[in-house]
Amino acid sequence: LEAELARERGANRDAQAKILELNRRIGELEQDLKQAGEQNARLREDREKICGELRRQLGALGSLTQQGGNLVLTLSSDILFDFGSFELRPAARENLSKLAVLRLLLFAEANVRYEGHTDRVGDDNYNQWLSEQRALAVYRYFLEEAMLHTQDPAARDLLQARMAAVRQLLEAKQPPTGRAAAARQDAMEKLGDAVIGKGEREPVEDTPAASERNRRVVLLFPP
Questions:
Q1: Cβ(169)–Cβ(136) below 8 Å
Q2: 216 vs 187: CA distance, rounded Å
Q3: Is this structure's pTM higher than 0.85?
């Protein structure tokens, strides 16, 4: 009995030692969790600051809103282009270069949609064509920027194919007719929903007069 009691006492001491060790490890884990929580809170705070600054930078380049979960950046056509033109102004290229940097930081792999809009002055067919041309001009700029930063051969081939299609579309100096119009429609459809011309169909303000707010190029960034 004395020998059995000694064994039980030894086992009890071992159990108490294990309990003490477990308590010590639990304390360490609790401390680690506390430190991890504090670090996560700091990271969230830093993330909010960075995202806030990036949003401010985006907002400085145009009107930044939210639509159906997407970030919507509206660029005024009057800043990007001369009246009746779809050639980017030098100052517009400077702003778009800043936007290209932000796009790489925020949406490097995302599919961004480019929409062109016009006011209601002029012929419907011409406005539709001009809205497409202006959206294509902005899209081409970002394709060129993407080419500079893409090393993957397959990705570069895809970009080059899209670039060729966009350049061909931009060669038109006036709205095409007949078979040329049908060919243009086919070429636009090959770009998918990356580039869309809305013409005068979705005005910001309901007026038949000239409207700077209605003449715009809109970039839709995914959530």
A1: yes
A2: 23
A3: no
